[in-house]
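Sharing a chain and its predicted structure for anyone who wants a worked example. Both blocks are below, sequence first, tokens second.
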Amino acid sequence: TVDALHVDRHGTLWAAVTGRGLLRIHADDPPEVVNLPGILPGDYKSIAEDPDGNLWLSTAHGLAVLRVGAVRAYGKPEGLLSENSSVVLEDRQHRVWIGAGNGLFV
């Protein structure tokens, strides 16, 4: 099951697939499974990109931000009120919105 899709600014397709994790599909390259530390393959729920090209991934256990060469995780210790984030989107003013079980956060 595909849980989320996102095409980034470079034309790379990112797919969150239940049981497989995060797939990166670019041009003629074969699909690549991207393993992020501490995130289980079925945890991804949505994908968004900010103005700097960072990918924001909502998961069952918080947020992950995928930057070139680095991953940053956000959960309750970093100030999230709920680690179960269901959606992440960027608005026209380039703010990242996070939908969770207990509210909407920016």
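Comments welcome. The first strand starts at residue 2 and ends at 7.
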